[in-house]
Design brief:
By secondary structure, the protein is an alpha/beta fold. 39% of the residues lie in helices and 20% in strands. The protein has 2 helices and 3 strands.
Length: 74
């Protein structure tokens, strides 16, 4: 059986919007970037995944995804 993980990521400035009252924009953007990289790293460690696909228009997510060998779809 072939298995893929598909990770949709919105642009980081729009991410984590429900935290807007507690956390300012720069911190939310950095949190989104850190969480995205953590998830991509974790997916990269799953031996049974044949493909990792990251769907995003966020350049800061696309570069680490490609470094991990993921396919990036804009």
């Amino acid at each position: 059986m072939r298995t893929a993980a598909i990770l949709p990521l919105k642009r980081f400035p729009a991410a984590k919007s429900r935290l807007h009252e507690a956390v300012g924009q720069p911190a939310r953007r950095e949190l989104a970037a850190a969480m995205a990289e953590d998830v991509m790293t974790a997916l990269g460690e799953v031996a049974t995944l044949e493909w990792i696909v990251v769907v995003t228009a966020e350049p800061r997510a696309a570069a680490p995804a490609r470094r991990l060998g993921a396919m990036v779809v804009a």
